């Protein structure tokens, strides 16, 4: 009888300790892997979320920049981390669902090696030209000119195979035109060349182009997302202009290694969604030219899986590859 009582007591203590360990999360600092250098859109959002979590729920969330190979190095590191909830990563569409089809071996499968936790924001993609360009007042002007002179018009992007580049290819195919892609190593060089008139157009994220648009130096022609940008509400969508098959934007969100306890995933999602419901957080995201977006882990995971399959065909059709 005594032995049975002791066994029961030990079991009860173990269960209680396990329950206490679960409810104590997090009981040490959380590393937020940022797969890009400081200062970019992903870094800004990651630091914003880290700061607000630290302030609102007193978690210690420490950003850790692990840049390289288009953001794939940081994602691969997160995928290989222990599934304890103490190593999360701010991923985005380019490195989560496009890169696996571009690179020969990125070292991770986003649908198998990582679990989608919480979407944070999405960024519309915009087609712009220099404000002093006399030829292109509207997107219709671009289409008319491109049909008259195939391959004579150039458009820049932040790099070959990026979501932004491929958004340009999708629009080109939807409009039935031929315009020539000029890849750059980042947004700034492309912006400088379109402002200087060295290229005709640029396809860009809204945050990258917003400052020059507001300064009156760039003329926005259309956004490729399904909805207009709240930062530029007067700019039409490509779909509104008649190209219904164009719906491209870039999302950002938090991921944890596969196998992370479901309770941790739920807890992180709940706290991030609370932040996104707040006016201060929404204003901070809008200031970057992005749109706040909250989803459940299940809904965000479904988005990632759908995009992963969708972009396989898009990348294949574009012919873009990276060694």
TrEMBL record:
CDD domains with a match to the protein in the record: PBP2_Bug27
InterPro entries noted in UniProt: BUG, Bug_dom1
Keyword hit for Signal: yes
Top-level taxon of the source organism: Bacteria
Record family assignment: Belongs to the UPF0065 (bug) family.
Signal peptide positions (record): 1-21
Entry keyword set: Signal
Protein name: Tripartite tricarboxylate transporter substrate binding protein
């Amino acid at each position: 009888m005594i032995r049975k009582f002791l066994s029961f007591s030990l079991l009860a203590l173990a269960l209680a300790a396990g329950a206490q360990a679960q409810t104590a999360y997090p009981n040490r600092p959380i590393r937020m892997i940022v797969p890009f250098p400081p200062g970019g859109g992903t870094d800004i959002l990651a630091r914003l979320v880290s700061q607000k979590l630290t302030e609102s729920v007193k978690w210690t969330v420490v950003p850790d920049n692990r840049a390289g190979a288009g953001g794939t190095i940081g994602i691969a590191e997160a995928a290989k981390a222990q599934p304890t909830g103490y190593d999360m990563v701010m991923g985005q569409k380019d490195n989560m669902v496009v890169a696996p089809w571009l690179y020969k071996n990125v070292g991770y499968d986003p649908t198998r090696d990582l679990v989608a936790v919480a979407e944070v924001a999405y960024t519309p993609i915009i087609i712009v030209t220099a404000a002093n360009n006399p030829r292109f007042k509207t997107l219709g002007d671009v289409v008319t000119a491109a049909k008259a002179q195939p391959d004579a018009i150039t458009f820049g992007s932040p790099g070959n195979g990026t979501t932004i580049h491929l958004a340009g290819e999708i629009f080109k195919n939807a409009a039935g035109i031929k315009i020539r892609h000029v890849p750059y190593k980042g947004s700034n060089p492309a912006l400088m060349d379109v402002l200087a008139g060295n290229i005709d157009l640029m396809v860009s994220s809204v945050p990258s182009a917003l400052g020059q648009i507001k300064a009156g130096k760039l003329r926005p022609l259309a956004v490729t997302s399904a909805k207009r940008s709240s930062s530029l509400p007067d700019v039409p969508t490509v779909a509104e202009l008649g190209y219904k098959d164009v719906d491209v934007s870039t999302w950002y969100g938090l991921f944890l290694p596969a196998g992370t306890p479901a309770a941790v995933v739920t807890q992180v999602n709940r706290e991030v969604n609370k932040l996104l419901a707040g006016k201060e957080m929404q204003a901070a995201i809008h200031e970057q030219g992005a749109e706040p977006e909250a989803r459940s882990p299940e809904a965000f995971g479904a988005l990632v899986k759908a995009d992963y399959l969708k972009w396989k065909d898009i990348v294949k059709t574009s012919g873009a590859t990276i060694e």
